[in-house]
Description:
Chain A is mainly beta. Chain A contains no helices and eleven strands.
Amino acid sequence: MAHFSATFSPGLQQLVQNRVRNSGELVTQQTAWQLGGYFYQDANGVLATQDMFGTYPPLGPSFDPANPPASFAALSSSNVTFYVNPSNISTSSSNTLPAVYTLDANAALIPPHLAAPTQVTVRTFGYTLFSGLPGRLPAKRGGRYQTYTGSDVDMAVPCTLAIDPQTGVAFYTQAEDPNAPSLAQEVWIVMVY
Amino acid sequence: MELDPGFEIPLPSQRYDFTCGGFRSACLQAPACGGRCGCILLAPAALAHPWDSNPQPLLEGPRTPGGYFVGASPFYSDPASPLAWDPGRRTLWYFGYGWLQRAYWTPFGFWNDYPGLAVQPNPAAGLLIDPDVHFLYCVSGSGIPYCVQTSGTYPATQLGTDPVERLLAVDPLRHSLFAYDANAHGVRRYTYETPAKGGWTSSLIASGLGDPGDAGVFDIANSVLYATYQTADPSLPRDPLGQTINDPSGVGLLAPWPLVATSVSGSGGPASVVLDETGVPQRPAVRLADHRVFYARRDDFDSLHFYQPAGKHTIETSRTINGCSGVDTYVDNENYPITAPQYPASWGDWSGDVDAVLTSVYR
Lengths: 193, 363
C-alpha cells in the first residue's frame, strides 16, 4: 500500500476508500565493490586502456600494481610522452567509464535507494461495514480503477474524496488515464449515488 | 462491552435499543425483520443506492427527469485536486486548471464558476469546509491560512502570520481549524473569537511531528484529531496496542507514518499519542457513533485496521477487518459511458421545460 484515503458515509454506513497499491518496488543497497577495469591516467587526468605502440598494453586481472614491469617506471616521469589511439581513451564511445564506477579507491558505499515500482493500481470504492456476517450486505462492487505500468507509474496519484453526510453521495477525482495523457492532465470528478 | 468488529453502532440521531427479537444476534438479522421491532436498519435510501450503482462523472448543465441533457459535459479537475463539499449549499469546491472552482447544485443540475478570491489558494495544502457556517479554508502560496466566506464577494480573512503546510481538519462544533506548521513540526489550532477579543487566534497544540501524509479527521465528540505524519518524535507516548515498523533499508527509505491522536479537550492528558505505525501516508476516517478510526497499514492488501478508544462501555480496541479491498469494476478512462446521473430526490427535482431553465440560468 502506497497511499490510503478514506471517509465515512454515515447515511450509508459505508467506508469509501481510495487505495494506491504499488508492486515491484525494490530497495537496492551496495554491499561490495567490483573492479571496473584498468586504465592509464596522464597528468591531465585522461584515462586510456593502452598506448599506441604496445609499450603499455591493456591490463587485466593478472596485473599486480605492487610489482609492475620495469618499463612502468617511465610512467612517473614528466618528460616522457605517450601516444594513444583516440579509441583507447576512456571518454570514447567504446571505452566510456560507466558512471557507477569511481576512481576513488576509498569512496563510500552508495546509499540504499528505492527503485520505482513496476506497477501501480489506483482504486476507489465503497465498502459497507455490514458485510462479513450472516444477514449483512456483501462487499460492494463498483470500484473505479486504473493500472499504471512502466514509465506510466509516475502518473498514478491518489484520488481525493468527499461525502454528502445526509445522502451518502460520494465525490472523488477520477484516476488519470495513461492512454490519454494529452487531456491537459485534467480528470473528471466522479459522483456515486 | 466489547463489540464484534463488524457490529454497527447507530448514529446518535438514530435509535437502536438492541431489542430486535430480544437478542443481539437477532438484531444482526435486522434487515430481514424490517425494523418493525424498533431496531434501526440501514436507511432505506442507502439500500436503494448502493455503491455499485454506476459511478458517473459530475455533469454540468440542466437535465430533465428522463435524463435528457442540454449541453451537459463533465467537470474537469486537476488529478490530485482536493475536494471540499459544503452540504448546506450543495457546493463542491475543487481545483481545475490550477484555479479554485465550485460546482453548485441547482434544482436542474450542477453548474460551475470561478469565484474570484483575493487569495490564490495552494492546492497542495488542501481545502476544508466548516459546514454550518459555510467557511472555506485554504492556504495561500506563501503558506498563510485563510478563511473564505462563501457568499457575496467571498471575503477572505487571514487567520495568522505563521505559515502552514497543510490543512488537517475542521472542528465544526467549535469552528476551529487544524493545520500543520512545518516550521514548528506540529499542529496549529485556529479558533475564532469576537473582534473585541482579537478575532482569529492560533496556538500550537502538538509538536514533534513530521510532515503529514494527507489531511486528517476530527472526532467532534471526543475532541481528538487523527492524522498520519511521516515521523513522530520518539519522546511521544505510544499506545501499547500499536506496532513499530522497521525500515528494511535501515536508512529511512520507508517512513513509519505513525497514526497520531491529538487531543484538544484540555483534559490534562498527553496532547499527542502515537496509536500505530502504519508505513502509509494516508487520510484516516472516523465513525462518530463509536469513535472508531479506520486506517491502513502498509501490508493491508486486502484488509483494513481500526482503532477504537476506550469508552463508557467499551475497552480500547485495535483490530483488523479482512476482505475489504474492493473490486476493480469500472476502468477510468475517457471512454467511460456517461448515462443520466442519479441525484438524491431530497435535493429537489425539476420538471419544467428546457427553455425556461436556460432563461433562468443565463439571465
